[in-house]
Amino acid sequence: MSKRQLPPYFLFFAAVSALYFAAWIRAQAQEVPPAPIPVQITSAKTVFIANAGEENDYLSRRNNWFSGGSHRAYNQFYAAVKNWGRYELAATPGEADMIFEIEQKDARPVSEPMAYLSLRILDPKTHVVLWGLSAAVELAGRSQNREKNFNAAMTSLVNDLKNLASPAASGAPKN
Q1: Are the C-beta atoms of residues 73 and 154 closer than 8 Å to each other?
Q2: pLDDT in single tens digits along all 175 residues of the chain
Q3: How far apart, in Å, do the first and last CA atoms of the chain sit?
Q4: In angstroms, rounded to a whole number, what is the distance separating the alpha carbons of residues 62 and 68?
Q5: Which partner for 135 in 52, 58, 106, 157 could form a disulfide, CB atoms 3.0-4.6 Å apart?
Q6: 160: closest CA among 99, 36, 89, 77?
Q7: Residues 135, 156: contact at Cβ < 8 Å?
Q8: Are 117 and 73 in contact (CB under 8 A)?
Q9: Mapping DSSP to helix (H, G, I), strand (E, B) and coil, where does residue 58 land?
Q10: What's the DSSP call for residue 56?
C-alpha cells in the first residue's frame, strides 16, 4: 500500500486559509467601545450616603479584625466623600440626586482576600442600581497590616469613584 502525497497546491491553499482565518479571528476580537456612564453619576450635585453595614459572618463575629467597629467603612467613606468636596451631602435620600450605599463584605471562604468594600450607586427615585464598585481588603495576620490594607482598599474605592464621577469621564471609567 503506497502513501498518498498531498498536491503542492493543497498546502498553499491550507496556508492561505489559515492566515485568512487568523486575520478574521483578530478582527472579531477588537475592543468593544465603552458604554456610557449614567448621566446621574456625572451630573449629580447632592448625594446621600447610606450605611449597608457589614455582613454578619466570620469577620463580623471577630470584632477585632479591624478597628472602628461595624461602622468603620461607612465612617471612613463618608469622611472621604466630604473631604473630596465634589458632592453636597444630603441629610435624607429624598434630598439627594444619588445614593451611595457602602458595605463591608466578608470574603467567602475566609481566605485571600479578607474582605471587600462594596459601593452601590443608586437612583433615589427609581431605586435602580446605576453602578457598582468594590475593592478587596487583602489578607494579613498582623493587626497593623490589616489596618493598612483596609485603608488601601478604601482609598482604591474612593479613587475609582472619583474617576467614574469626573465630569470628563466619557464611556467607561479610567483604569
Answers
A1: yes
A2: 456 776 777 667 777 777 777 776 766 667 778 888 999 999 999 999 999 887 655 544 444 567 777 788 999 999 999 999 999 999 999 999 999 999 988 766 655 667 889 999 999 999 999 999 999 888 777 878 888 999 999 999 999 999 999 866 445 444 4
A3: 63
A4: 13
A5: 157
A6: 77
A7: yes
A8: yes
A9: helix
A10: S
**105, β-bridge pairs:** 116
Question: What is the three-class DSSP state of 175?
Answer: coil
Count helices and strands in the chain by DSSP H and E runs: 5, 5
Residue 124 DSSP code: T
- List the grid coordinates of 142: 498582623
DSSP-derived letter for residue 68 is: T
Of the candidates 86, 52, 54, 84, which has an alpha carbon nearest to the alpha carbon of residue 150? 54
Residue type, 70: S
Q: Is 33 exposed, middle or buried (0-12, 13-18, 19+ CB in 10 A)?
A: exposed
